[in-house]
């Protein structure tokens, strides 16, 4: 069971047998045993959330700035879905909106239009980043390439 670390504890037969060591368990996992389902060709999963859950979703994100009388579109209909455990890199030219999108996804700035959800709950301001249980949101640096 490479996907779920930790020691195997005695299972009492109630709920999901992996609940005590699964990092994406939800309330239903305490009481409902998951059924084995086909999720793709030759791949099955037994999870109340359908496998590795999507934890961060950004949909229809728009953000504009005014600069020297001109309107700059930093984000234009941006979409992103990030599953638990994924490492994501935003790549683009200088000024293409990478930092703006990251700041919107983490609640640092608000989008002009669009929605951001963390674990199914709308991100508004710092309602997730202020919590001690928030996941790591670190910018490890930037690398710039000029043509």
Q: Write the element-wise H/E pattern from the N-terminal end onward.
A: EEEEHEE
The side-by-side strand order for the widest beta sheet comes to: 4-3-5-6
| Beta fraction | 25-35%
Question: What oligomeric state is this?
Answer: single chain
Radius of gyration: 19 Å
Shape: elongated
Pairing-aware structural class of the strands and helices? mainly beta
Give keywords.
147 residues, mainly beta, 2 domains, four-stranded antiparallel beta sheet, two-stranded antiparallel sheet, 1 helix, 5% helix, elongated, disordered C terminus
Tell me what the structure shows.
This protein is mainly beta and 147 residues long. Helix content is 5%, strand content 31%. The protein has one helix spanning 98-105, and strands spanning 36-40, 43-46, 54-67, 70-83, 113-118, 121-122. The strands form two sheets. A four-stranded antiparallel beta sheet has the order 4-3-5-6, with helices on one face. A hairpin with a 2-residue loop joins strand 5 (113-118) and strand 6 (121-122). The radius of gyration is 19 Å and the shape is elongated.
List the helices and strands and how they pair.
Layout lengths: L35 E5 L2 E4 L7 E14 L2 E14 L14 H8 L7 E6 L2 E2 L25
Antiparallel strand pairs: 1-2, 3-4, 3-5, 5-6
């Amino acid at each position: 069971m490479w996907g779920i670390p930790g020691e195997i504890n005695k299972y009492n037969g109630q709920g999901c047998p992996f609940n005590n060591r699964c990092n994406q368990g939800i309330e239903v996992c305490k009481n409902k045993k998951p059924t084995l389902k086909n999720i793709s060709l030759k791949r099955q999963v037994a999870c109340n959330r359908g496998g590795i859950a999507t934890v961060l979703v950004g949909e229809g994100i728009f953000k504009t700035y005014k600069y020297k009388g001109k309107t700059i579109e930093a984000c234009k209909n941006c979409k992103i879905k990030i599953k638990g455990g994924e490492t994501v890199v935003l790549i683009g030219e200088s000024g293409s909106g990478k930092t703006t999108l990251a700041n919107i996804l983490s609640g640092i700035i608000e989008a002009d239009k669009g929605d951001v959800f963390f674990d199914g709950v709308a991100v508004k301001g710092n309602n997730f980043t202020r919590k001690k249980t928030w996941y790591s949101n670190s910018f490890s640096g930037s690398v710039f390439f000029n043509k």
